[in-house]
Amino acid sequence: MRRGDIPAITLEEIAEIREFFPREKFFIFGHARSGTTILARVIRQHQEVHCHWQAHFFTRPPLLESLVAEVSVGDWLGRANNRWNRGKDLSPIVLRAAADIILEREAQREGKRIVGDKSPNSLLDGEAVCLLHKVYPDAHLIYIIRDGRDTVLSHRFQNFIEFPQFLSREDSRIREEFANNPHPFLVGEQSVFSAKGIRQAAEGWVRNVRETDQLGKALYGDRYLSLRYEDLLERPMEQLKRIWSYLGAEPATESAWVGVDAELHQNLDVTWQNQKSSEIARSLQKGKHGTWQTMFTSQDRAVFKESAGDLLDEWGYGWE
């Protein structure tokens, strides 16, 4: 049997645990295919900052809190005759210590004093921010957003390439038609989405952006930072200086900028996806801004504008 609410960590407990795990922590959230990986790759080029990915402490079940989710575990950690718990449930200490050691052992090996994880939060949206805050209210939260139309296209092709076994019968048919004759799809004559699928994709993107951004601001205040994927690619020096300063890092060394440039000029997805499904991947241009403009059908455009037009405007994305 699973427990109800698991208590959040207290300020006193944070102060104590930081004596054992003192490194500054940050977490990168974003909708899948929004640039979280390239952001992690360039952030960690800094001489003081390390970042890795897909810990999914707070973004994909079973979640970090599953370590203490059973009623019997809660009873044990909060038992009155447990002289180690000072009369309180030890669950938040256990969760924080488990995540801290995973993060800090990597940072120590790299010789870095600031460490973070990037894990897309599009499965849990705003709930992921709340789960993070219960364990890491003292962390920094970075949220990266990408034009929702390019985001859902990229996510669609990721599913075609990497997870075809989970596609519906209709989606499998669309995938097969694309593999056999991609041209009508690439020029917007035929949609890679089903009628239901494009609306669900648009609504999912809106939900992720609205919930994550609103809760990030509300719960983290000035410890929350958002940026656009497109700005990172167009003005990497400006964006990275802003991020590293926000994390409390020293100015980057020349070798850090050399590393950033090298990362920006390679796309690891190209090789991987060609190995997984070359019949799909060979027709695509990876990471390109504005792919939706040629691939969206008129119906795709209409549905996306209806579902996400206001949010696209808020973030400075136009329709031409």
Task: Describe the global form.
Answer: globular
Number of domains: 1
- Quaternary organisation of the protein chains: single chain
- What's the architecture in CATH terms? 3-Layer(aba) Sandwich
Mean pLDDT: 94
Provide the low-confidence segments as ranges: none
What is the string of SSEs from the N terminus onward? HEHEHHEHEHHHHEHHHHHH
Would you report the number of β strands? 5
What does this structure look like?
The chain has a single domain (11-314), classed as Rossmann fold (3-Layer(aba) Sandwich), CATH 3.40.50. Helix 5 runs parallel beside helix 9, helix 6 packs across helix 13 (268-281) and helix 9 runs parallel beside helix 15. The mean pLDDT is 94. It is globular and about 70 Å long. The protein is built from 15 helices and five strands. It has 320 residues and is of the alpha/beta class.
Provide a compact summary of the structure.
This protein has 320 residues and is an alpha/beta fold.
Observed structural traits:
about 325 residues, 15 helices, alpha/beta, Rossmann fold, globular, 5 strands, 5-stranded parallel beta sheet
Secondary-structure blueprint:
Layout: H1 11-20, E1 24-29, H2 36-43, E2 49-53, H3 71-78, H4 91-110, E3 114-118, H5 126-135, E4 140-145, H6 148-162, H7 169-180, H8 183-186, H9 195-220, E5 224-228, H10 229-234, H11 236-246, H12 254-264, H13 268-281, H14 292-295, H15 298-314
Parallel strand pairs: 1-3, 1-4, 2-3, 4-5
